[in-house]
Write a structure and sequence with these properties.
172 residues; alpha+beta; six-stranded mixed sheet; 35% helix; elongated
Length: 172
């Protein structure tokens, strides 16, 4: 009988992330309330309420990001899907603080997508905090060959990842 163990790590949600989304939600709610109270066109408050609700969903989804370590894979799960990297394809991993000068390559969410930076090149990120872990793998596994994630307890995550990689190599 095959037993698969799964370790789940939640994302660390930074205060900047909370403040940004919380501020935007508040701004759109205040605008909607103002437009409604000034008795202008009824469609505008509805539009602003929909935008505020959408931002609230994105804020909530930041708390739903999960990083799962199984016996064979690292899975990063978020609102827009899952990224998988086989443990055997991981070349290196280390703590990393995402620089402010990182450039967004595609998409609009602050929680993930394709990025680049002169220091590490192209990478895929699923994160809610600038402090996290960079995982180097081959380019066939992940965009740019690097994945940036932000688990709540990065040291514990790195220790578990190292143990899983060692277990995976000894099993082969």
């Amino acid at each position: 009988m095959l037993i698969i163990t799964v370790k789940i790590f939640k994302a660390k949600v930074s205060r900047l992330f909370q403040a940004l989304y919380g501020g935007l939600i508040t701004l759109f709610l205040v605008i909607a309330l103002y437009i409604f109270l000034t008795e202008q066109v009824i469609l505008l408050p509805i539009i602003f309420l929909v935008i505020a609700l959408s931002l609230a969903i994105l804020l909530y989804s930041g708390y739903q990001i999960r990083y799962e370590l199984t016996d064979q894979k690292l899975k990063a799960r978020w609102l827009f899907g899952t990224k998988n990297i086989e443990l055997g394809k991981i070349n290196a991993f280390k703590p990393y603080k995402l620089p402010y000068t990182t450039i967004r390559r595609l998409g609009i969410s602050l929680m993930g997508g394709r990025y680049s930076h002169g220091e590490i090149g192209k990478f895929y990120a699923i994160f809610t905090s600038r402090e996290g872990v960079i995982i180097e793998a081959d380019e066939a596994s992940i965009y740019g060959g690097n994945l940036f994630i932000s688990p709540k307890k990065p040291k514990k995550f790195l220790k578990e990842l190292e143990e899983k990689i060692i277990e995976n190599k000894t099993a082969e």
